């Protein structure tokens, strides 16, 4: 028994994670339900490091040094429970099960509780970066006990991505489900980022009249500034790609119906439960859903829209600059909303999550990695109790500078009939937060009228009800 770590579940993610551990000098026990995958891994990549191939669960567990560290990389949901049921009886107190799949944090909380009774550490761990990241350094978001992190942390730090300043993109996020919760919100923010980029693309295409190749160049330029990020970079790559079969821009031959696996939806569902307004992420999830309703879209194709007015060259260039402002301002809002959800989750479940540390570990390896995250970290480092990212002086100033263009872009979108739910939701959130008065006062009046739900007054303490059906006098409730 000499492997420092074991990986079970050797599809793309598990296989690459096992190789990453081995390349970093660890002896890795490998196992998969279907043994063919295990042997294929060792045959193909055995030269990269020290692997111990195990055919059975017993062999696998026996190959691990104590306390055992066992990584599960299988399909989230029932397969994860099946694997835990198979391995847990073979483990001893002090051993660690690390679930690197995309589990729902509520499942992680349940599994952690059940295994804790047996003295086993269950470490629900968010891993972002896709196959590439798993192999070369992902962003890693482990939850679970402090003790387990003491044992696992150094190994995770070694295999993780490194930010530009060299620090590893991993931190102990918090107890039980904290890691998977943060991974979930990461994915929600990823949905919002992608939606905003999509809207920017469509505006540049439909309103400014640019071709995909020209838009690719615009994104490349943006990627050298404050929008510098992995998603902007790959957007330029996708937009400049030409389909070999037709010679057309690749983006024009792909069916425009976006799919989703569920983490974005979870982010919104949980936000609804926590009462956190993540309107930008919600719009991104709904936009994907709308795109998939092919029959509904077909039936709606004849509906009236405005007559589009083509832009001249210099007008288009100025418009592109405005879109950059709108995209940046909307991005600040979606991160504001995402971090609000993490803060609310942390509060609800007692996780004590360090928001600056979260921003810090997203700087490398993960899909939403961006220069921008350095500034979010700086904002929380300067003021850990920041009520919202919008209260940060730098972000506040940047939005103040962007807002005129942001509004102009939305006006152009509305005038030209280009759907921009992400930009619009972000601006509405911003305007609602800064508003002196909201129509919520009217809502309270309506609720009191039809349901005697009572209201509070601006000038006195207490709850009140107006006798709407009677003489309309006010009573204390
Ligand atoms: P998949 O999610 O496609 O899962 C395939 C693996 O699960 C195979 O090893 C398969 O074994 C195993 N498995 C299944 Br299915 N049911 C099982 C069962 N009842 N008992 C034991 N093993 C079972 O693999 P993946 O795409 O590598 O992703 C792994 C995890 O990482 C998932 O939770 C995913 O959500 C997460 N993740 C993926 C990405 C990504 O970019 N793909 C990124 C971040 C996180 P078999 O070979 O015997 O069928």
From TrEMBL:
Gene3D superfamilies: 6-Phosphogluconate Dehydrogenase, domain 3, N-(1-d-carboxylethyl)-l-norvaline Dehydrogenase, domain 2, NAD(P)-binding Rossmann-like Domain. The keyword Oxidoreductase applies. Pathway: Carbohydrate degradation; pentose phosphate pathway; D-ribulose 5-phosphate from D-glucose 6-phosphate (oxidative stage): step 3/3. It holds the Pfam family NAD_binding_2. The gene is gndA. The lineage of its organism: Bacteria, Bacillati, Actinomycetota, Actinomycetes, Kitasatosporales. PROSITE patterns: 6PGD (PS00461). Residues 179-469 form the 6-phosphogluconate dehydrogenase C-terminal domain. It is an enzyme of class 1 (oxidoreductase). This is 6-phosphogluconate dehydrogenase, decarboxylating. Catalyzes the oxidative decarboxylation of 6-phosphogluconate to ribulose 5-phosphate and CO(2), with concomitant reduction of NADP to NADPH. It comes from the Bacteria. Its EC number is 1.1.1.44. Homodimer. Belongs to the 6-phosphogluconate dehydrogenase family. It comes from Streptomyces thermospinosisporus.
């Amino acid at each position: 028994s000499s492997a420092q770590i074991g990986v079970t579940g050797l599809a793309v993610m598990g296989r690459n994670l096992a190789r990453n551990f081995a390349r970093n000098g660890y002896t890795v026990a490998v196992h998969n339900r279907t043994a063919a995958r295990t042997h294929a891994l060792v045959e193909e990549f055995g030269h990269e490091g020290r692997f111990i191939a195990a055919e059975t669960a017993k062999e696998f567990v026996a190959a691990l040094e104590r306390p055992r560290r066992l990584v599960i990389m299988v399909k989230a949901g029932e397969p994860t429970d099946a694997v835990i049921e198979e391995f847990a009886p073979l483990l001893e107190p002090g051993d660690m099960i690390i679930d690197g799949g995309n589990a729902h944090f509520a499942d992680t909380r349940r599994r952690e509780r059940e295994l804790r009774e047996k003295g086993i550490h269950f470490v629900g761990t968010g891993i972002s970066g896709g196959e590439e990241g798993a192999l070369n350094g992902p962003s890693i978001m482990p939850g679970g006990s402090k003790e387990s992190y003491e044992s696992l942390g150094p190994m995770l730090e070694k295999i993780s991505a490194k930010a530009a300043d060299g620090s590893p993109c991993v931190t102990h996020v918090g107890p039980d489900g904290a890691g998977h919760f943060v991974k979930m919100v990461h994915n929600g923010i990823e949905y919002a980022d992608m939606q905003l980029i999509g809207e920017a693309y469509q505006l540049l295409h439909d309103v400014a009249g640019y071709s995909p190749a020209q838009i690719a160049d615009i994104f490349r330029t943006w990627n050298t500034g404050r929008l510098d990020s992995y998603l902007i970079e790959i957007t330029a790559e996708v937009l400049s790609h030409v389909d070999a079969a037709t010679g057309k821009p690749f983006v024009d031959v792909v069916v425009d119906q976006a799919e989703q696996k569920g983490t974005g939806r979870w982010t919104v569902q949980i936000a609804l439960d926590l009462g956190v307004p993540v309107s930008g992420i919600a719009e991104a999830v709904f936009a994907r859903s709308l795109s998939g309703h092919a029959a509904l879209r077909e039936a709606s194709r004849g509906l009236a829209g405005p007559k589009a007015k083509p832009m001249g060259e210099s007008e288009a260039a100025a418009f592109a600059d405005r879109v950059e402002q709108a995209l940046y301002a909307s991005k600040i809002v979606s991160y504001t909303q995402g971090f609000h959800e993490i803060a609310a989750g942390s509060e609800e479940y007692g996780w004590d999550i360090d928001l600056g540390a979260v921003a810090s570990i997203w700087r490398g390896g993960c899909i939403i990695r961006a220069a921008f995250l350095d500034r979010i970290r700086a904002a929380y480092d300067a003021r850990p109790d920041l009520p919202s990212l919008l209260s940060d002086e730098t972000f506040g100033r940047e939005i103040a500078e962007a807002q005129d263009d942001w509004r102009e872009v939305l006006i152009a979108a509305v005038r030209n009939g280009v759907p921009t739910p992400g930009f619009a939701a972000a601006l509405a959130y911003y305007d609602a937060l800064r508003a002196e008065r909201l129509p919520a006062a009217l809502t309270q009046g309506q609720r009191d009228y039809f349901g005697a739900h009572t209201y509070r007054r601006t000038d006195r303490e207490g709850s009140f009800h107006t006798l709407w059906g009677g003489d309309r006098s006010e009573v204390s409730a």
